[in-house]
Amino acid sequence: MAEEKKTSTGDIGPVPTSTREGSLREGVLSGSEKDAAEIHEVFQKVEGGVDFRTVSWQRATVIFLKVIFATGVLSIPSAMYSLGAVGGSILIVVFGALNTYTAVIQGNFRNNHPECHTLADMCNVIGGSGIVGLSVAFNALSDHAACTVWWSFLSFAVITACASVRTFEKIGWLTWAGFVSIFTAVFIVVIGVTTRDRPAAAPQTGDYELGYHAIGSATFASGMTATATIFVSSAGTSAFLPVIAEMRRPRDYRKALYVCMGLVTAAYLAFSLVVYRWCGQWVANPSLGSAGGTIKKVSYGVGLIGLAVSGCLYQHVAAKYVFVRILRGSRHLQHNTVIHWVTWLGCSITLGAIAFVLSEAIVIFSYLVALTGTVCFAPMAISVPGILYMYDYNEDRKSGSLVRKAWYYFHVLLILVGAFIAVGGTYAVIKSILAAYANGEIGSAFSCADNSGSTAH
Questions:
Q1: From the record, what ranges are coiled-coil (predicted)?
Q2: What distance in Å separates the CA atoms of residue 199 and residue 124, rounded to the nearest whole number?
């Protein structure tokens, strides 16, 4: 017997069996089911209001690419020193595939329950890595001409201004520019490191140890920190959900997802292996500083837009989540009222300020990236999708075939894996941060010290 359908716009009820079989396993809905889904969409077609549903799947692809392609490619090469080239490569592929699959679950669940807008309750934490990355770029380009706190504040202002554009369609050109910018910057560094006789951070005379290993020999803390760094590089898929809500055809999201994750995984693997092979333990963090001072300035100059757009997108996602949560169900959500604008700008500025504080509290890029992976993305990108699948396929547990029952319980394993990364990974990252404070690798919070130095790890 078909399960009970949703009865109100705000309720998330069990999805009908026909919808579950169609949209989750085949991506097909009947006409009546499509009409019912449209009624429950967060953003409706309204007369005289703001039309948020304007994003094509092609534009969604570029937005997805820019959401994912940034922090990972800047931090993975240093993570490979702990894990080795083989271990790091395996994790890039495994986490790329896993994050793609869990993104499919999230998107399917969202389309089955179109009243769901986002999983990004904790997404405001992520914006901090964007501010750190941009402040590093400003320091590198200016030869640390001003206090790092001021560069971070400028980064906060730039990112918040970009993030305050209301719709994803309107910031589409930023995502194109941002992706091309950061991709080109990384490519410059990849070429740059291969033209040097020895890494820029290594001793320039005499013998030196490159530190390139196929198999790493990491401690639990360093290994889990490196694992979390690689995991988070492709785990930002929960940020795709608000984009899906603004797509013209939300059920086209898989096209954008597969193109994005395929390109990102291939690029991460190629770029990271080349940089690690040529720099070894002397790789800079972020990796844009790995090819020496001149190339560092060139790459940060080229990648400046990309670093800003990365922070912009995450902050936009977080602000949109809070904005929708506050105004949902009221006319102010899609009409240009004073309350609409005050709420939207207030959300964006407030979350930007929180990200600024976090960026100054944890000033080393790789640790901030790893911490967001364990605290935020492990639950959101692994555990929660497991729960979502079990919710929509609960009948498989009792009446499904042996294969479907096995697949159902596989998602219990996903929940446990996410919990392990969240608990074990957070412990390891905090231990690494404390060790970095103890040995002077990290200065005090809100320090004016230069954060763009190409320090080997």
A1: none
A2: 36
| CA 42 – CA 439 distance, rounded (Å) | 50
pLDDT confidence of residue 415: 92
What local confidence, expressed as pLDDT, does residue 6 receive?
A: 37
302, 188 contact by CB (below 8 A):
yes
CB atoms within 10 A of CB 1: 4
3-class SS of residue 317: helix
CA atoms within 13 A on the CB side of 408: 16
Report the alpha-carbon distance of residue 10 to residue 333 in Å, rounded: 15
Dig out the tokens for 199 from the structure. Answer: 């890494």
Measured distance CA(42)–CA(418) in Å, rounded? 28
Name the residue among 371, 415, 368 with its Cα closest to residue 389: 415
φ, ψ dihedrals at 55, nearest 5°: -90, 125
Q: Are 243 and 64 in contact (CB under 8 A)?
A: yes
- Can you give the pLDDT at residue 274? 92
Q: Residue 247 pairs with which residues in a beta bridge?
A: 55
Return d(Cα 429, Cα 421) in angstroms, integer.
11
Locate tokens 């030196």: which residue?
Answer: 208
Q: What are the residues whose beta carbons fall under 8 Å from the beta carbon of 105, sequence distance 6 or more?
A: 385, 386, 388, 389
How far is residue 436 CA from its own chain's centroid? 24
Model pLDDT, residue 68: 85
At 145 the pLDDT is: 67
Tell me, what's the pLDDT at 133?
Answer: 64
Q: Which residues of the chain have pLDDT under 70?
A: 1-52, 70-72, 114-133, 143-145, 169, 172, 361-366, 441-457
* Three-point CA angle 121, 125, 126, nearest 5°: 105
Tokens of 33: 């089911």
Check residue 205 and give its pLDDT.
Answer: 83
CB of 278 closer than 8 Å to CB of 421? no
CA dist 343 to 59, 162, 164, 258, 357, Å?
27, 16, 11, 34, 21
As a whole number of Å, the CA-based R_g of the chain is 22
- Tally Cβ neighbours within 10 Å of residue 130: 29
Tokens of 220: 């639990």
What are the backbone dihedrals phi and psi of residue 389, each rounded to the nearest 5 degrees, phi first?
Answer: -60, -45
pLDDT 10s digits, 397-456: 888 788 988 999 999 999 999 999 999 989 988 888 888 777 776 666 666 666 565 444
Instruction: Report DSSP state, residue 44.
Output: -
Going by C-alpha positions, the residue among 269, 268, 441 that lies closest to residue 367 is: 441
The pTM for the full model equals 0.74
